[in-house]
Amino acid sequence: MAHFAKIGTGNKVVKVEIVSNAIATTEQAGVDFLNNLYGTNDVWKQTSYNTRGGVHKLGGTPFRKNYASIGFKYDQTRDAFIEPKPYSSWILNETTCLWEAPVEKPLTYINNLVDPDGNAFPDYYEWNETNQTWDLV
Questions:
Q1: For each successive 10 residues of the chain (137 residues), what is the average pLDDT?
Q2: What is the C-alpha to C-alpha distance for residues 9 and 82, in angstroms, rounded to an integer?
Q3: Cα separation of 42 and 29, whole Å?
Q4: How many C-beta atoms surround the C-beta of residue 15 within 10 A?
C-alpha cells in the first residue's frame, strides 16, 4: 500500500491516506487518484511507512526522511517530513531530519529492568528542558 500526506497551510501535514499500489503505480498517479476522489486540487506527497531518519527499516529505499504524520511539516528544500520540535533547545539533524537533544541520552542499566524474556532493559530517561539534562525516571 502507498501512503500519501496532504499538505496544508504552512506546509503542515493535515491528513494521511492509503492508496492501493495497483492505483498508485507512481506518485503522480496516487496524487491524481486522491484529488479525483475528493474533487480537489490539493498538494499530496508520498510518504513511506517504513522510513525513519532516512533509513528504511525493511532495507528498501528510504523516502522523504520520515513517515509523515498529522502535524509534521513538509520541508521542500530537504524534501523531508519533519516532526514538530519537541523542545526549544533541540537541534535538527540535517542528515536524518530528526530532532536531537543538545546532550546525548545516557544508556544505563541502574534499575536492573528486564523484559518478559529476562533480557536486560535500559533505564528510562526524560529530557529536562530547564536544566538541559536527561533525568532518570
A1: 97 98 97 98 97 95 95 98 98 98 95 89 95 96
A2: 15
A3: 14
A4: 15
